UniProtKB/TrEMBL annotation, chain A:
Keyword Transcription: yes
Name the UniProt record assigns to this protein: RNA polymerase subunit sigma
Sample GO molecular function, one term: sigma factor activity
BP GO terms, sorted: DNA-templated transcription initiation
Domain RNA polymerase sigma factor 70 region 4 type span(s) in chain numbering: 119-171
Phylogenetic classification of the source organism: Bacteria, Bacillati, Bacillota, Bacilli, Bacillales
Residue stretches making up the RNA polymerase sigma-70 region domain: 25-87
PANTHER family linked to this entry: RNA POLYMERASE ECF-TYPE SIGMA FACTO, RNA POLYMERASE SIGMA FACTOR SIGV
SUPFAM superfamilies found in the cross-reference section: Sigma2 domain of RNA polymerase sigma factors, Sigma3 and sigma4 domains of RNA polymerase sigma factors
Family: Belongs to the sigma-70 factor family. ECF subfamily.
Organism domain of life: Bacteria
Cross-referenced InterPro entries: RNA_pol_sigma-70-like (IPR039425), RNA_pol_sigma-70_dom (IPR014284), RNA_pol_sigma70_r2 (IPR007627), RNA_pol_sigma70_r4_t2 (IPR013249), RNA_pol_sigma_r2 (IPR013325), RNA_pol_sigma_r3/r4-like (IPR013324), WH-like_DNA-bd_sf (IPR036388)
Pfam families named among the record's database cross-references: Sigma70_r2, Sigma70_r4_2
Keyword tags: Sigma factor, Transcription, Transcription regulation
Automatic annotation (TrEMBL), chain B:
Source species, domain of life: Bacteria
Name recorded for this polypeptide: Uncharacterized protein
Transmembrane segments: 46-68
Species, as recorded: Ornithinibacillus halotolerans
Keywords: Membrane, Transmembrane, Transmembrane helix
Length: 186, 366
């Protein structure tokens, strides 16, 4: 549905303010959730979302229309997230995240119901390093094709496939082979 | 392999992140509030005198704050109707910023003119790059700087100047440890290639994305190798990567799996990198005095008996095993590898390569 919106609206015909409101209304929730998968903190998600909107506001003319609007917006948002992850502020919180990750992985070992197993997979995905996490998020949460992921991240399709393969190995290490058999991700 | 229903994971993601909308938090987004309230913006035109007064007061306060040594500023759309510009300028590292302290002694830099004189092909490539960037409206301003960095880098590769390779490549590589590892561990492998003849096969600046792909062919002692570089020049610190394959390898475009394995199986890989790329080996041991490691991928729910001395051809044929990859190590480096995988017709394909770049390829026969 979102893809169709792009064909209906010419973002350059709007005022900057209306374009920002349009983007917020139609892509805001999706982008905020994407940002959360990177930073894993609601307050930080709000901050980065604001920075994302300001960046879009000032750079609307850089969107040429050749890539899809969604691809461009995702790319801007992801770059903002990566800027944050490299920042000293984030590094201070890495230790806390690491502790939280350990707890999440520990809980996977226990007996779980179907729904909880899915939650455990998602939690494990969110504990992967960014380079693997972002690909799983785009593939299984944003439901993008390999080609779309390669466009958003500026990676070749083969690299995306390779990272899925390596990410799967890492997930197996976290979840255990037997556990993943039931939830094969490819 | 089975596909997991992505919808079920989508719900799991939603529940993990929170089922309530996150966008409501946007109400607290000051920038969005500013965008939503045209009256606030119009007020600026209605009361120019008041604005001037506010500006004077603002400048005074800012000056006072600066004098007191507090340079921290905060976006406040209500006071500053046009939010602070966040241009995210493209940074091509300057000479001073770029050189790592320990590398300064290694670097002996030629000028662009000297490089062109030495290898006229680079001049053509330089022009081609600039033409490529001309297609990207928002990179036109920086096209010369981009093209220069690429030319200097290619020259460094062709002259095997590791100091300069690092200088031009490291700013373009991710700070991610694994990518660094990949490059560092491969340096000895690159230096094995002799008598470089660098030829640029194609350059494809993407229209939608700020990525340049350059395929370069090296001819070394009659063996042609090809490398594809993807350089993200817009965000030098973001994901950079280099994929490598041998141009004389033939592959079916649909068979990405086979290709992926082949790209990563290289003569000269260290044990550490082999584990990094293929995971822990299924088996390792000594065969006829040589150290052999077996890597494989087994289909979900399948089982087989791996061996260092015999290929599990039947298991590969019935797709219990997706591939078997045997590495022979000498002094921590792969000197020979053999890859076995199923062909569409059900036969097992064998691909063996040794350190002299001799290749044996065909249908595996027991």
């Amino acid at each position: 549905m979102l893809e169709n919106l792009e064909h209906d609206i010419d973002i350059h015909r709007m005022s900057r303010e209306n374009a920002v409101l349009y983007i917020t209304e139609n892509y805001g929730e999706q982008i905020k959730r994407l940002i959360f998968t990177y930073v894993k903190n609601y307050a930080t998600t709000d901050d980065i979302f604001q920075e994302f909107l300001i960046k879009v506001y000032h750079n609307l003319e850089l969107y040429s229309g050749k890539a899809s609007l969604k691809t461009w917006l995702f790319r801007v948002a992801i770059n903002k997230c990566k800027d944050y992850l490299r920042s000293p502020i984030h590094r201070l919180t890495v230790f806390q995240d690491w502790m939280a990750d350990r707890e999440a992985v520990k809980s996977i070992k226990s007996e779980m119901m179907e729904k909880e197993k899915q939650q455990a997979i998602v939690q494990s995905i969110l504990t992967l390093s960014v380079k693997y996490r972002e690909i799983f998020v785009l593939r299984f949460y944003q439901e993008m094709s390999i080609k779309q992921i390669s466009n958003v991240l500026g990676l070749s399709e083969s690299t995306v496939k390779m990272r899925i393969m390596r990410g799967k190995k890492k997930l197996r290490e976290k979840l255990g082979g037997e556990y993943l058999e039931e939830y094969e991700i490819d | 392999m089975k596909n997991m229903k992505s919808t079920s994971l989508k719900h799991a993601f939603d529940e993990c992140i929170g089922t309530k909308t996150l966008l409501k938090h946007a109400d607290s987004c000051r920038f969005l509030n500013w965008v939503r309230e045209p009256e606030k913006r119009k007020r600026i035109h209605v009361f120019p005198a008041l604005l001037t007064l506010l500006l004077i007061v603002g400048v005074g306060i800012t000056g006072l704050v600066l004098i007191m040594g507090n340079t921290e500023t905060e976006l406040n759309p209500a006071v500053d109707p046009i939010p602070a510009v966040d241009p995210d300028p493209v940074i091509i590292p300057t000479e001073e910023e770029d050189v790592q302290p320990e590398e300064t002694t290694v670097v002996e830099e030629p000028t662009l003119e000297e490089i062109f004189l030495e290898n006229p092909k680079y001049e053509a490539l330089y022009q081609e790059l600039i033409d490529g960037f001309n297609k990207l409206a928002h990179y036109r301003d920086s096209k010369q700087a981009y093209a220069e960095v690429i030319i200097f880098y290619l020259h460094a590769v062709s002259t095997k100047n590791e100091g300069l390779i690092k200088k031009y490549l490291s700013p373009m590589f991710s700070s991610d440890y694994e990518e660094q590892l990949w490059f560092e561990k491969n340096l000895p492998f690159y230096s094995e290639v002799k008598d470089y003849d660098v030829e640029v096969m194609h350059i494809s600046p993407s229209l939608g994305e700020p990525v340049v792909s350059i395929q370069i062919v090296y001819t070394s002692s009659g063996v042609t190798e090809s490398r594809l570089y993807h350089l993200d020049l817009q965000n030098p610190e973001h994901d950079q990567y280099m994929t490598i394959w041998e141009s004389h390898d033939t592959y079916n475009d649909d068979d990405a799996f086979w290709r992926t394995i082949r790209w990563n199986a290289q003569i000269g890989l260290t044990k550490e990198l082999a584990i990094e790329l293929f995971g822990e080996p299924t088996l390792k041991g000594s065969v006829k005095g040589e150290e052999v490691w077996l890597f494989d991928e087994v289909s979900s729910g399948s089982d087989y008996t791996p061996s260092l001395v015999s290929v599990a051809a039947d298991a590969i044929r019935n797709q219990s095993v997706l591939y078997q990859l045997y590495f022979t190590f000498e002094d921590d480096q792969v000197t020979k590898y053999a890859l076995y995988s199923r062909l569409e017709d059900g036969n097992v394909k064998e691909y063996i390569r040794n350190s002299d770049h001799e290749i044996q390829e065909g249908i595996y026969e027991e």
